[in-house]
TrEMBL record:
Family matches, as Pfam families: SusD-like_2
UniProt-recorded name of the protein: Starch-binding associating with outer membrane
Signal peptide coordinates: 1-24
Alphabetically ordered keywords of this record: Signal
Phylogenetic placement of the source organism: Bacteria, Pseudomonadati, Bacteroidota, Cytophagia, Cytophagales
Organism: Dyadobacter koreensis
InterPro entries: SusD-like_2, TPR-like_helical_dom_sf
Length: 481
């Protein structure tokens, strides 16, 4: 009898276990959303990451409240603390967090999905955009987690790589990505930049390599020359026209340009006096594109705001007597430019002047200025008249001034890239914020976010010991001369 009871209990237990397991399976099936993808799709990740990165480079944290003010493209007429270099802890943290947790994480997943599916083109495009993200991060902060980054299963507290090593690594990554692209291979979807045109992606990869080669030209000229010479040997592998600009063209609300969205509720930015005065001096036809005329009549119709004014001084200038940002940049569909044709030409002009290639630097400079003017739809007659001015002519004896000033204009409202190139070329020669808090100095980087100090303390401390004090005024490797 006892034996039978044991058998009965065993059978009952097995039956109950099976029943519960079946119920669990049924419940799981009932709770599955038939319309939800179980496995991440590369096209959705790619589109989302492109959009998130575009929002970062035009948004408040990395642009409006930091780099676009530091490089004096914009100025503040209200809430002027950021324009005086009082950096917001939140802004600095958001730039870091959003690049790492949004763009880089998604681009890395796109690469892995491409590897798993055997689609080398997803791998390549993911690696190009991942490299672009790292380039912007190191441009802003200096030494950053790179080789161990986005590998949370392996490195919870990734080390910081020296900026030089990051740039050299990116040159190799972009070379690999360009070589991976198979223009006759599997197509890609979710491409908000080139709509699946893989030839243009290869050009973007090579143009990024050219950018980084010039970034290190003062510190590692041998490597820079080698990369530039390789690329210049076949210029067709670079962005070769304004129709090949790497950019995201926004849509109407709710997917509009972040500047457009910001302007719906705020009116605290104006075009910097530095920009307005320079364009008036040069009789530059881009002035009415970059800035709006003042609402009230003023002698020149355009009035810029001095960067870093005290709040009461800025307010006294008057909202109707100062120039707002031009409609081109506040339109819902205004593009987020990742890398332009004019920038490629400016980089080639500089490479020629440095002796890296044998091309005519003056001719490339003239073509670069022309490309920028055409990008902003300036008429051919106005272009001819502008280039004929002696003040615009190329000066080989001071090429950094010629290229630096015109590049600063061409990169208007591309805060991150303009800020980096201004630090590298040291032109135009701007004056620090009027009431700046850095003792008459400019900010030369972003400080590391407080989250890193708390959660990645050992790596953070090692980076600071190597790079220098964690201050806005600490020069980065590419900028230290």
């Amino acid at each position: 009898m006892k034996y039978k009871n044991i058998i009965f209990r065993s059978v009952f237990t097995l039956a109950l276990t099976a029943l519960l397991g079946a119920c669990q399976d049924d419940l799981e099936e009932v709770n599955n959303n038939p319309n939800e993808a179980i496995v991440a799709q590369p096209e959705y990740l790619l589109a989302n990451a492109i959009k998130s990165n575009a929002d970062i480079i035009l948004g408040s944290d990395a642009s409006m409240e930091t780099t676009t003010l530091y490089v004096q493209h914009w100025a503040k007429i209200q809430y002027t603390d950021p324009d005086k270099y009082t950096a917001s802890v939140t802004n600095i943290q958001n730039v870091w967090t959003n690049f790492y947790s949004l763009g880089l994480t998604d681009f890395d997943k796109v690469i892995k999905l491409g590897e798993e599916s055997g689609n080398v083109n997803y791998q390549a495009v993911g690696l190009i955009l991942k490299s672009w993200s790292f380039q912007m991060l190191t441009d802003l902060y200096g030494d950053i987690p790179y080789s161990q980054a986005v590998k949370i299963d392996q490195y919870l507290t990734p080390k910081y790589d020296a900026q030089k090593d990051v740039y050299l690594g990116l040159l190799n990554d972009l070379k690999k990505a360009g070589d991976l692209i198979n223009t006759s291979g599997s197509p890609i979807s979710g491409d908000l930049v080139y709509n699946g045109n893989l030839t243009k992606w290869k050009k973007f990869a090579n143009s990024l390599r050219l950018r980084i080669a010039l970034r290190i030209a003062d510190k590692d000229p041998a490597t820079a020359k080698s990369v530039v010479a390789e690329l210049a040997a076949n210029p067709s592998l670079l962005i070769a026209g304004n129709d090949e600009i790497a950019q995201l063209i926004y849509l109407s609300s709710p997917n509009q340009n972040p500047v457009s969205r910001d302007r719906e509720t705020r009116d605290d930015y104006r075009v910097s006096k530095s920009v307005v005065d320079k364009l008036l001096e040069l009789k530059d036809p881009r002035l009415p594109i970059f800035a709006n005329k003042t609402v009230d009549a003023t002698p020149n119709n355009y009035v810029g705001v001095t960067n870093g004014l005290l709040a009461d001084s800025a307010a006294k200038l008057g909202f109707t007597k100062t120039s707002k940002l031009g409609d081109y940049f506040t339109a819902p569909t205004s593009p987020a430019v990742f890398l332009s044709y004019s920038e490629v030409l400016f980089n080639l002009a500089e490479a020629a002047q440095r002796g890296f290639i044998s091309d005519d630097a003056a001719a490339l400079y003239k073509n670069a200025v022309t490309a920028s003017l055409q990008q902003f739809k300036v008429s051919s007659g106005d272009i001819t008249a502008y280039l004929a001015q002696p003040i615009v002519a190329y000066n080989a004896a001071n090429y950094k001034k010629s290229i630096g000033e015109q590049k600063w204009i061409a990169l208007f409202s591309q805060g991150l890239e303009a800020y980096t190139e201004w630090r590298r070329l040291d032109y135009p020669q701007l004056k620090p914020a009027y009431a700046g808090v850095l003792n008459g100095k400019f900010p030369l980087r972003l400080t590391y976010p407080t989250g890193e100090q708390a959660l990645n303390s050992a790596s953070y401390k090692a980076a600071v010991a190597s790079q220098g004090e964690d201050k806005l005024t600490t020069k980065l490797w590419f900028d230290a001369q």
